[in-house]
Input
Amino acid sequence: MSKPDPRKQNGHRRRQTRARILARDTHCALCGQWIDKTLTTIPGQHGPKCTGQTPNHQPCPGCIPHPHRAEVDEDIPVSRGGSPHSLDNCALMHRQCNQWKSNQTLAEAQQQLTTQNTQHTTATPQQTTTRINW
Output
């Protein structure tokens, strides 16, 4: 039997931690770029299960998460024993930076970026996915 996800065990505490991190941080912990906290989804783009309507029968504005939206990430991942409730272990990141970091610690991910950049590669988390041209 699998262990329950600690991020969902104490929802109130996680929501408090998330609110504090959103209020405290303004830049991505990995790439260092500013994060627009108003971004949620990509307008007009829908997932495969989208019916085109919200539950209250309004048109769906878009349900694909924006790659630059704000996400709270754990420096030491929960999968490696980190706490999802500790303010010292949590930081703000772009969604795509968080996905790129995966289950690495922040230091490991930053080291990997440094290694890539010294090998004359220009790939950063901000460049690993397709940017949206508005």
